[in-house]
Sequence to fold (686 residues):
Amino acid sequence: MTTRVHLERDGDVALIVIDNPPINAGSAQVRRGLLAALDTLRRDASLHAAVLIGAGNTFIAGSDLREFGQPLEEPQLPDVIAAIENCGKPVVAALHGAALGGGFELALGCDARVASPGTVVGLPEVTLGIIPGAGGTQRLPRLVGVPRAIQMVCSGERVPSGQALAWGLIDQEAVGDLRAAAVAHARDLRGAKSRLRDRSVPTPDADAVVAASTVALKAGKQRPAVRAAIEAVISASRLPIDQGLAEERAVFQQLRISREAHALRHQFFAERDAAKQPALAGVAPHSVQRVLVIGAGTMGSGIAIAALDASYDVTLLEQDEAALQRGVTRIREHYASRVLAGKMKTSVAAQREAHLSATTDWTVMAQADLVIEAVFEDLAVKQAVFRRIDNMARQGAVLASNTSYLDLDAIAQVTQRPQDVIGLHFFSPANVMRLLEVVRGAATAPDVLATGLALAKRLHKLPVVTANAFGFIGNRIYSAYRRQCEFMLEEGAYPEQVDAALEAFGFAMGPFAVADMSGLDIAWRMRQAQAARRDPAARYVHIPDRLCEAGRLGRKTGAGYYLYEAEAGAKGRQTDPAVREIIDAASAAKNLTRRALSVEEIQRRALLSMVNEAALLLGEGVAQRPSDVDVVLTNGYGFPRWEGGPLFWAVDRGEQALQSDLDWLGEVSGPGFVRGDVKHLWTKGN
Fold:
């Protein structure tokens, strides 16, 4: 045994206990302990079976991912599973909490699986750029068939215990004590082995396999790990299992050291670290149960839904009865659609709606623990709202603004309690998007910031703390990115060329398609508000202004950077000669000779503009660490996860090459370009 694994006895049944907090990760020390315990089981004639169980709150919730970027220590997980299968005595996996990745592969190597209600099982390796490497692609199809195995492996879905029982992933859902149920199940096997490797894969239906593969490839954006996972699962139906296991392991070993897997592991750790705030150690958040949302528009309704889903008592407040009712209807229609789609029980939807109240009476604010303002993005409007909040909210309530660009301190200063004001920048749709920028104002108290982070956790959001600055982290970087793309329009590119180049890199949508979707007038109003403060010598592109002046505000008006026709469908964007005329005229007005821009130049300039702005933010202390920038851009702005984030991409280029890149970017950007210090990418850690 090791300090991470110990053996207990329940009569003739050994209990092999994994104790590697916090998630019982399958480390090398755990693997060595398991082999030692299995050797004891094999040699001890008084032991007739074993139960493999996790201490604490979970079974094994995954492997130690830090091992994956370096040579794996012996013994490796396939050796442990082979020892279980080759042991002459049955081994039962007792699952609780989560059995994920290598933890679930270990369970599949056992002779039976017993789980507590609420346990989730799954193989999420593909989401990390690899495939299951310890038999997951070979044993799983023997339980659920090839099509469902493709679905599970490629999506990385977590299957709850009830569904797992129905699909045959577990043999029993324990009633009462898991340990006692697993020991009883082990005795019921009467010494007989029941290895999945000895089962045949159900003969797959060819059409079902093609359909599952097509869905997986589309959802997985044709990434290498998805393709490899499909091939490995299908191979289970045509190869002897030892050959299938060997080929699966070889592919796993190849993928785990790939740049893509490295990038995805970086993103995994970056997301895990984003909420860590050592300065808040020991700071208790406020107790929050009653949430009041001001503004019943799309954003306010989405925030209300997110809060209802987290079991808060929610009040929706509007100054106009008609607007209020539209918001309530939007929320009710959301829950009705979830029920209709089979994603929520009618009783659950009714329970959540029962926690919603709606009013135009501002005096109810006195009952709220947390007030979230989600009104029009205009500083004067928000300041007027916060003056009313200051007069009506109870002392000790947390006061939050959902602003996405504006100066949080300018909002807080109209109150008598700026220490209670925080920014909560939700991303639309607020009930769907995980990212939440938690904005710390100059006066924000530590316990208020801690409350914002606690709220994010309860909402199942991914919080990133940012200091107060125009656009915070995400919108400020995205503004620099979009501005660089506008420079390229002036110089010779057209919107469809820029969008195609960046979508080819992996962005979900190009910047001009995004602008059309969100509406060009939003950024136009922001530019107008900043006009007086803009450096007149700085390079400024008038093209988006000309489009707005022509009434081309994007999808909602049928025309923006593209033309949208109803008969072309919701996604039907078409190039428009009128846009080219506006762009060509803008180039001519500045005496610019238009030239062709390569895909490589478009991608390089767009990404470097993000990197440079991020370096400025890090230097100013707006972003705390480079990895926070990667989390924001990946989760809120469509940056491809498999590239790790813009700063992962930048660091991968090396400091010397990056310095040279930014020298070039400054030259092509022209007057007004402010160079960031990329040393921050290394000195602050990434």
Remarks:
- The domain at 475-683 is CATH 1.10.1040.50 (N-(1-d-carboxylethyl)-l-norvaline Dehydrogenase; domain 2).
- The chain has a mean pLDDT of 95.
